[in-house]
Structure formats: C-alpha cells, structure tokens
Amino acid sequence: MLLTIKTTRYPATDLGYLLHKHPAKVQQFQISAGKVHIFYPEATDTSCTAALLLDIDPVGLVRKGPDSNEFALDQYVNDRPYVASSFMSAAIAQAYSSAMNGRCKDKPQLTEEAMPFEVTISVLPVKGGEVLLRELFEPLGYEVIASQLPLDTQYPEWGLSRYFTVTLRHNLPLQQILTHLYILLPVCDNDKHYYIGDHEIEKLAEKGKGWLDTHPAQEIITRRYLKNIGALTRQALEVVLKDEVDEAVTDKPLKDKLRLHDIRLQTVTDILLELQVSSVADLGCGEGKLLRLLKDNPVFTRILGMDVSLRALDIARSKLKLDKQPLSQKDRIQLLQGALTYKDKRIAGYDAAVLVEVMEHLDELRLPALEKAVFGCARPAHVIITTVNAEYNVLYEKMQPGSFRHADHRFEWTRAQFREWANGVAARCGYEVSFRDLGEIDPTHGGPSQLALFKILMN
C-alpha cells in the first residue's frame, strides 16, 4: 500500500527536513506487520514528493494474529496486505514520528508553517462510501478527490467496490496533516489490527487535540477509532470532548465555537473573585481547565478537583504539572476520584463548590442524590452551577428537533426548568439563589448556557 505526500512550497525539498528523511536516500523500517520503505519519486525546488510504501507480510500476520476468529479463514483471506488501514497509521507514526510530534532539528521554524500539501492514498477502504469520506475530511478544510475502484475490471457488471484512490489537498502544517491521517485512516476502514483499551483514549485525546472537539462527525470518529466499543466511546466523549462538544453544532467560526466555554470558565472565576473565597472545589473537573485558571491566581489558597474518571484526572494532573510544583505549592491543589451522587466528606470544608456543565451528564433520577451530596453533606457557603439552555438549541441549524448537544447528555433544561429545580434546592437546603445567562444572548431564547449562584443563608 502506498501513501505519497507532495508539496510545491519553495524550496520544496524542505519536505525532507520536516520528515527527517533525506531525499537522496531510500530508507527502510521494520514494523510488526512488515517493512516500511521511504523514498522520493521527485525532489526539486519546485516540487517534492515523499512516498511511504508499506510491504505487509501476510504470513507474519497469521502467525502474530489471534488464535481464534469469528470467520475461520479470515486471517488467510482478507485485504490487509493491500489497503491503507490501521497498519498504515502505525507505519506513519513510526516512520514519521518526529514530524508527527512537531520536531524539526535543522529547520524548527518549518513545523508551524502552513504549506500546500497533496496527499494520495492508493487504496483506501471506506465503509460508508464517498459520503463518509467527505464528512470526515471536508470539515477540516481538505479538497477531496475520490475515485472509487471496481470490484473486478474484467467484470464491470459486478459494480464498484468499497475501495478508493483518494487525493487530499490542503494548506496546513505537516504535523496536523499527519495526525489527521493517523486518526482517520482506521476510521474510514472501521477496523483496527491491535488491542483497543483505555490507552487508546489517550492517543485520541493527544492526536485529536485542536480539531476533533469541534468536528461535526466527532461521534462517529470516536466510535470507529475505538472499534465501536461502547464503554470506551462514552468515556472518550465524556473525558476528552466534554468541554466544547456542545458548541460543535453551530455554524459559527471556530473562534466563536470555543468562546462559549471560555466565557463559562472566566465568568465562574470572576464570581469566585467577587465572593472573596479562598478555597474552591471543582466538582466534575474533567481535564482541569478551570483548575488551571484558579491555579494562576494566588487568592485561591486551597483548590480541589474531583471527577469520576481516573483518565480525566490523569490528564488534569499532567496539564497542571503537579509533579513539578515547588514544595510550598504541593498541598495547594488536590485531585480526587469521586462521584457527585454519593456523600463524600472529602469535599466538605470549602468556601465554594463549582459544577460547570456537569449535571446534564447525570440521570435526572440521580439529582436528589447530587443535592444531598453537595448542598447537604459538603455544604459550602457558595455553589455555582452552569448547564446548557435547551431553549437556545433551535438556533443551531444543524441540530435535529428533540436532540441533545452532546451524546452523553441525559437531559437538557429550559431556563424555567432550571430555575424551578434550583429554587427547590435553595428552599430545601437553606440557600438563596440568583440566575444569569451565559454567552451571546438572544432576546427570545436567552443564552446558550445558564448559571445559578447559590449563597447559604446564615441562621
């Protein structure tokens, strides 16, 4: 199977620096499935093409494959040696590892430069046809040229196959193109040759950073990348994509899609500063975006992040760089695993508790348990809760009536429903509550998000 990358950016031979592969040499790499050959069919100042030829060892595949299979002959009768699949993704990751990680030793300035690239994949299986192929690549800005191959050239009456020769054109940094290919090639094929576990969520989060969270086909990409394993897909959508996924349904520019979540976090931070609190518990902290804002302000002397997902906490720990903090800061930030539907004394004793876009991920039947855990057991002086405003959904042209903004949302409330619930909690638990809209306000439908601020009533 063959993948070529071509550029006409002058001098085009800079492609060799980016890929860490000299145009005058033919290089070979051994991977578990066979051999990778890198060579340059052309290398001039005006046009340079790097070719990656993956030579799969079919006998080796059988020997290293599983002992049993749903189809007894599948390990012998398959298309794996001849098509671009997860084997090609593995070859890209190994042969072009420096370029994928944004490293260029001799010309580091090239890594962030957008260049005109043309990528050609000789035989790509696409379960979903050309429609899916375009749904995956066109939202990322690619020009897609797809030629569907016949089942058999000698028998045209048999019709077309699910295999395509695909050319992709775009002006992007090479690192972005390689990460797109790494994720989307096995998504097209809807299969992977290796074991899928929790570690794959980390890969998806790393390689999908900056584009997957706003991709309109993010759900199918996530599901297929994780080999249609429902539990892992739900975890990935919750942990990796939770923060911005509800903005992906808009038709606004990317900067506007990301702005709403920034508004939520900044508004919450501003309220905490106005309240003059010193200790904050971020309940359902995810990968720690709010924690990073709080960490940068010395006013907050004690910060807690709690989430049900260990994977989310690992990401938060890494991004907060807790292992590199000085001794004086070691006890300032604490991360805990826990669920908001159980009483937990570890979250008690904080001036304020924050739940940013968390409650809609719980079943409505579990909200009384959340009320007891947060307002009864923890009982902070202040509680800030944000949630989506269902009334605003009609302004998202791509949303179907009755659908939710996120695959893991269990409900989405109107402003009236949210106020009814919050007023009930305040009355039962001894708080007063006020409300505000978040984001760009529509005169009829309000803001895309809504916020409730609870203050405890002093006896």
From TrEMBL:
Its cofactor is Mg(2+). Residues 1-238 form the Hen1 N-terminal domain. The keyword Magnesium applies. GO terms for biological process: regulatory ncRNA-mediated gene silencing; RNA methylation. GO terms for molecular function: metal ion binding; RNA binding; small RNA 2'-O-methyltransferase activity. Its EC number is 2.1.1.386. Signal peptide: none annotated. Keywords: Magnesium, Metal-binding, Methyltransferase, RNA-binding, RNA-mediated gene silencing, S-adenosyl-L-methionine, Transferase. The keyword Protease does not apply. It catalyses: small RNA 3'-end nucleotide + S-adenosyl-L-methionine = small RNA 3'-end 2'-O-methylnucleotide + S-adenosyl-L-homocysteine + H(+). Belongs to the methyltransferase superfamily. HEN1 family. This is Small RNA 2'-O-methyltransferase.
